[in-house]
Description:
Elements: H1 12-25, H2 29-43, H3 58-73
Amino acid sequence: xxxxxxxxxxxxxxxxxxxxxxxxxxxxxxxxxxxxxxxxxxxxxxxxxxxxxxxxxxxxxxxxxxxxxxxxxxxxxxxxxxxxxxx
Length: 87
């Protein structure tokens, strides 16, 4: 079996955390990624549920744009909220 190299971009912190996970499970990143690839090929699908984040739905984006326009026009005013921490 001929091997080849695959280069991917990953957030630096995610890579560090992934490497730590792999160390704790006795794997390395290459083995873990190969396990994922084999699962995709075996099952002919991504081996976990992938779904759209409803935050980015067309309806929600339109609602946010309307609210931003209302704030910019002075029709609405932003207020502090107990659940939002302000630094």
